[in-house]
Amino acid sequence: MRLEGKTALITGASRNIGRQIALTFAREGADLVLNTRQSRPELEEVAGLCREYGVNTHLAMGDVSDPDTAAGVVEEGIAALGKVDILVSNVAIRPHKPILEISNDEWRHVMEVNLFPAFYLIKAALPGMMERRNGSIIALGGQSAITGRPDTALVTTAKTGLLGLIRAVAAEMAPYNIRANMVNPGSTDTARAHPEWYPEFQEVARGSEQHVSGIPLGRQATVQDIADACLFFASDESAYITGDRINVVGGRYIV
Q1: For 29, left (φ over 0), alpha (ψ -120 to 50), or beta?
Q2: Whose CB has fewer CB within 10 Å in the chain, the N or C terminal residue?
Q3: Which residues contact 86 (CB under 8 A, 6 or more apart)?
Q4: Parallel/antiparallel/unpaired status of strands 135-140 and 57-59
């Protein structure tokens, strides 16, 4: 088991990609601190499935876009399980909107959800990692961190900033053997709680033949595809990789 003896904190762990990361890490032996803002029943279900692998699992509820709450989630996880070796910052919202229609409040809100939590969580988790001289930080980005697209100014700015944070942390923390990397999912087969955020799919259905025709591998990613990339960065198999990113996009940007 590739993560045996490790403890991972995963935010946004109640559904979709975060849920699958939790299950994958549990399968590989990691004890888990699982976080979500409000979906406690869903998070408890995920925790129950993780415990079937024989790992310790602690639930830490809270909105990590608030700095005190984010620090509290890390502190609670350490108090419950002793340490945090792996941090996965996964919370995000992805509203697509023309730039001239974006209000200042919407701009601020997306930054607060997509970018700020990673900083708050990293800042709280680093002292323990530095003391043990070991750690892996993983941020979930997206296609918007690779290239800009129309109507994505909100998400593109936040996710590109997140990549900058990861690179800066990687450079500063390398002497402590703490790595920081980013996983960029492409179009992924997940449940969308807010279809209104994706006007491009009102006429072309997600996962349809027309939609995937622009993806060389001819399909959307599965949540397991994304979780496997996170597992690589969490494990010692990527021990010599930091400040980098994996684009799990099915070859979309080679054509």
Answers
A1: left
A2: C
A3: 3, 6, 7, 8, 9, 25, 30, 135, 136, 137, 138, 234
A4: unpaired
Residue 101 DSSP one-character state: G
DSSP H or E segment with residue 30: none
Specify the amino acid at residue 126: L
Contacts of residue 254, defined as CB under 8 A and 6 or more positions apart, other chains included, come to 216
Separation in Å, CA 216 to CA 207, 220, 247: 14, 10, 14
- What would the pLDDT profile of 29-57 be if each residue is shown by its tens digit? 999 999 999 989 999 999 999 999 999 99
CA dihedral sign, ordered 52, 14, 161, 202: positive
Residue 241 to residue 2: CA distance in whole angstroms: 16
The DSSP symbol for 50 reads H
pLDDT tens for 162-193 read 999 999 999 999 999 999 999 999 988 877 66
